[in-house]
From TrEMBL:
A GO cellular component annotation in the UniProt record: DNA-directed RNA polymerase complex
Identification of the protein by name: DNA-directed RNA polymerase subunit omega
UniProt organism field: Johnsonella ignava ATCC 51276
Family: Belongs to the RNA polymerase subunit omega family.
Keyword Transcription: yes
């Protein structure tokens, strides 16, 4: 069993949005694509990882160390250089 569950992870990722906004992640497919993209980013760093990249990516999303942004919002989010962003390519 996956911990956290898909529904828990989607709920946490969508909790950062403003009330009335469309949720960033609307399906399991979107959350899987976002975690896979984050795992590829971790692999590309060529750093020594203490866990498997996918496990780290799930933890990063669940603990809100990174945030998923829509492709159109990337330009807006680049203004805040402290945040790590994952562009959500498909919903």
């Amino acid at each position: 069993m996956l911990h956290p569950s898909y529904s828990d992870l989607i709920e946490v990722v969508n909790s950062g949005g403003m009330p009335g906004e469309e949720p960033v992640v609307q399906s399991r497919y979107s959350i899987v694509m976002a975690t896979a993209k984050r795992a590829r980013q971790l692999i590309a760093t060529k750093m020594l990882l203490y866990k498997k990249p996918l496990s780290i990516a799930i933890d990063d999303l669940y603990k809100q160390r990174v945030k998923i942004v829509a492709e159109g919002d990337i330009e807006k989010s680049e203004d805040s250089a402290d945040d790590k962003n994952i562009a959500d390519e498909g919903q």
